Amino acid sequence: MHPGSPSRELKRQSETRWICQWHDINTALKTMGPLIATLEHFEEIDSSTERHTTADCFLKGLNLEFAVCLISSEDIFGRAKANIVVLQSPDKDSSQAAELVQVLQSDI
After folding, report:
1. Is residue 2 in a domain?
2. Radius of gyration of the chain from Cα atoms?
3. pLDDT tens digits for 80-103?
4. What is the DSSP letter of 67?
5. pLDDT in tens, 50-75
6. Rounded to whole angstroms, how far apart are CA atoms 35 and 32?
7. Exposed/middle/buried for 77, CB within 10 Å: 0-12, 13-18, 19+?
8. Calpha distance 73→69 (Å, rounded)
9. Within a domain: 86
10. 43, CA 20 to 30 Å: which among 13, 76, 81, 99?
């Protein structure tokens, strides 16, 4: 859609891998412009098809409330991702891990 822009794709979902959740939210944020443009294109050219109806429904769902949730989720999952990397470090003991989790909870 945008020549010269890097290609992005969603990773396979995993309910237990927070990094995958953050990656997908981050990808959605970075590709929101082209996504909306594509949906608007389908809405305009296919006025009597199921694709038009689907695009129209998605566009109606992409409102301010959705944007706020998406941005907030990206922030929360991003903070969790950073903490997960630190918590998985072999040189962290349990007291340092507990302190790190408390800081994350107070930040969120």
Report:
1. no
2. 19
3. 887 777 777 788 777 777 887 888
4. H
5. 888 889 999 999 989 999 999 999 98
6. 5
7. buried
8. 6
9. yes
10. 13
